[in-house]
Design a protein that fits this description.
The protein is α+β, with helices and mostly antiparallel strands. It has one domain. The protein has 2 helices and 5 strands, in the order E-H-E-E-E-E-H. Strand 2 and strand 3 form a beta hairpin. Helix 1 crosses helix 2.
Amino acid sequence: MDWQEKGHRAGHKDKVFEGKVAQDSIFKFKDLYKFAYEWLVDEQYQVIEKNYKEKVTPDGKEIEFEWNATRKITDYFKFEIGLKWRLLRLQDVEITQNGEKRKMDKGSIEVKVTAFLERDYEGRWETSPFKKFMRGIYDTFLLGRTRIEAFQGKLFTDADSFIAQVKSYLTITGRRG
């Protein structure tokens, strides 16, 4: 059972986006973590971290954790982005960049991103079969497909932009290992 299925009495979720960043690189993990977190917060998402695991192996550190980023759009719609981070063979390295010695991290990074548009996120329309039926009518006839598609488009753009920002960050701050 994934994070998006646990403990919800909420309405309906549509998967809008699925993608990932994966590369071997030299970067500063602490700075990447802060950059990614602040980017989501700047986009008005609330970020909750869970399942942080770190272990040391002969090849370096292995770090895995998840973020659940949510943004309430209306009283009915909410954006939800799940991020699964995995870093392997993370080692301290010293590089010379612009004539300066810098401590960096070298390793493999993968961030899987899945985005959902959630309708009736407080479960107000889930309390009876009649209300569920009425939610279907509300979605189809009152909201209209155009409004739902506009929210899906915005969420898709947010998730895709997050991946692009992380890729750019890795390119600008480090180099491939």
